[in-house]
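Hi support team,

I submitted a single chain yesterday and got back a structure, but I'm not sure I'm reading the token output correctly. Could someone confirm the output below corresponds to the sequence I sent? I've pasted both exactly as they appear in my results page.

Thanks,
R.
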Amino acid sequence: MRGFCLCLAAWSALWGAAATPCDPQPVQKAVKALRREITVSIIGEGRMNKPKDLKWDLQTVVDYWYEAMDREIGNKPDLVVLPEGIDNWNDVTPAEKRQWVEYRGDGIYRAMCAYAKRHRCYLVYNSPRQRPDGKFANTSWVIDREGDLIARYDKAYLTPREIEWAEFPSVPGEGPVVVDTDFGRLGFVTCYDLNFTHFADAYKLLAPDVMVFCSYYDGNYMRNYWASRVQAYLVGCTVGGSLPKTVVGPSGENLVYQPEATAGGKYFRRTVTTKINTNFRVIHYDGNYGKLAAAVKKYGSRVYMTDPARAGTFTFYSADPNLPIDDVVREFGLETWREYYDRSLKLRASSLEAAK
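Hi R., thanks for writing in. Yes, this is the structure output for that exact sequence:
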């Protein structure tokens, strides 16, 4: 660690004069996914205060986030998620924000790539990106276990203020982004995106297993809506100690809700590690009861499910990575919630047509 930091400090001196622009293109990789139980670390530390006299220091920012990630890295996470705008300083003006982004160049990006490679984990962080046209994007960067950029997602639904800033003009992303990893497919939303329900429908068509939500606001019940609508886990990483760190299951159930403090408000938890199982499918209970009983009779504890009483749907899991849940679904003729939903729409349309 020390050798890397010393090297980074040397680079920082050069960046202060002429930083390397940060606009790398993702590497396209063919990945074979083994859907299974994985470990996820949510690193929701707060933003740093603006330095006095605007004396920017890249090393301070890198050390700050390295220290936060180090609190959970002993759990050997497969996926590390950081919040929105990890290098958006508190109380900066748009003009100062632009000055910082131009100063730090690709320094944050290179540091995050190095961390992911060193610890052999996937890492998602959010940080402003300067586009080739000189404008900016609110970008989530997705780095794999080899330290390579495999995807980047530009926040699609910016707030009016983000678009209207004259000194830091930002451009919205064009739409949803998914990327395949060795444990399943990831999708991405950032903060204000969560308010647009048709955007959830667009992601549903792309069938991610996990939605990564980097944010500067809670999201509240919209987290549960998105998870159940997309039928994916939603991993929510928010800024600081005043907002919860959350994981919502594919049927919309809260699995992790880490509030700002324990009873009495004496202990703030800004990082948390948990496990999720991407070897799942969401099933509607209607018509599947006997088939499920047969599947459980054959496979026993190798399969399990959430409580189906919530909304007629539940998540059906395989605890064995060598037993893909899709194989079980096919074997017993189970109808997934996606299939049941589509079938009901088609039957409604044909029934209405026949009634004319």
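A quick pointer for reading it: The first helix runs from residue 2 to 18. Let us know if anything else looks off.

Best,
Support desk
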